[in-house]
Amino acid sequence: LLKNQMNREDDDDYSDMTNPSAISRRDMVKLNQVYGESIYTEGNDVDLIVDGNDLMDRMISDIRTAEKNVYAEFFIIKNDRIGKRFIRELKDAAQRGVTVKLLIDTQGSRSIGKRALRDFLEAGGQVGYFFPPRLFRFGIKIGLNLNYRNHRKILVIDEKIGYTGGYNIANEYCDMVPRFGHWRDSHIRIKGEAVKELLGRFILDWRFTTKEPLSIPVSMDTQNIVGTKGIQIVNCGPESPAQEIKRAFMKMITTSKKTIYIQSPYFVPDASIIESLKMAHQSGVDVRVMIPCKPDHIFVYWATYSFIGELLRNGCKVYIYDGGFLHAKTIISDDEVSSVGSCNFDIRSFKLNFETNAFIYDREFALKMKDAFMEDLKSSHELTLEDYNNRSLLIKFKENISTLMTEIL
């Protein structure tokens, strides 16, 4: 199917598309197919979820209805109240005979050890450890691939329901850590053909990690047409120099005619992204970027401030979210195309991390994303160029030091 779609390189018709947003952005669909090797699917329904407790309840409800399999892949699962609740639900599913596979990043999920997973494993669950540590020195496990992290967040249930976005599994994502306050993030629940693409990504990562020859069921080809929303699942990682998600972001930015709204906790882009945003503004596009008011990684936060300054000097609008911690990784273009996923607007996400984003071609969903952005504006304040220029010498020093490390932040 992918080869057939990629063979459309000389065909600009795309006559089988029915979604108006996808038709008007057929050049972006083609880019993601040819450059990002991402299949375009149209038979999808998508829900936007912006509250961690709501997301946890919905994922657990779907896990409890699972009859065949549950495949979960997360960067962070902590051994805290929320993490234990999630692992317990996976264990219960395994006890009823459901095939349950859990893939975790060994750095992000380093608090989850064999003791925390013992009941899950005894119930028949399986665990894969992405880039496990190979060295043990002074009581500390040391990985040989510390700089490469599986930052993806994927959950697939019975090959019919898929989740992806920015939420991990830990107390802070459900507003249970006071220093962060309300955790503002974005996740999506997908039903439809695109679930197969999420499952395919999980299977590739599972096979790489465990060497188990897992494969996609043939029966999925016809069972999952439930809506009309167009979706492409785009992945990137250090195994490919293409930076597929960054290229898709740039395409959204450079082809926008009216608006570009971006949310990211870490805004440390390279020159190509900055230039794309500046060009969009200079072409009359309303460019707005929203970042958090508080850091969870100090150096990344001050590097973000430095890059935000360049946007302000070129007339783009910047907002600081004051309602808690903003962790959403989203972009909306012209109320028509939007993206939700694990990829931040930073060099680490583009080049070093393994990431997954859904690109949704649908006006109705884009307007829901826009409504969420506008609601967040009520809990934000605009950072003006005057405010930025009046920042203290200490902040300027922090920016300069942090900017030196942008390639590894």
Quick recap of the structure?
This protein is of the alpha/beta class and 409 residues long. Helix content is 38%, strand content 25%. Helix 4 runs parallel beside helix 5, helix 9 (244-255) runs parallel beside helix 10 (271-282) and helix 11 (298-313) crosses helix 15.
Task: Describe the structure in your own words.
The chain has 409 residues and is an alpha/beta fold. It contains 15 helices and 21 strands. The protein has helices at residues 2-6, 20-24, 26-34, 52-64, 81-95, 114-122, 194-210, 220-223, 244-255, 271-282, 298-313, 347-352, 363-377, 385-389, 393-403, and strands at 40-49, 69-74, 99-105, 126-130, 135-137, 140-142, 154-157, 161-165, 183-184, 187-192, 229-236, 259-263, 267-268, 286-292, 317-321, 325-326, 330-333, 337-341, 345-346, 355-361, 380-383. The strands form four sheets. A 15-stranded mixed sheet has the order 4-3-2-7-8-10-1-11-20-18-17-12-14-15-21, with helices on both faces. The protein has a two-stranded antiparallel ribbon with strand order 5-6. A hairpin with a 3-residue loop joins strand 17 (330-333) and strand 18. The longest helix has 17 residues, at 194-210. The chain is globular.
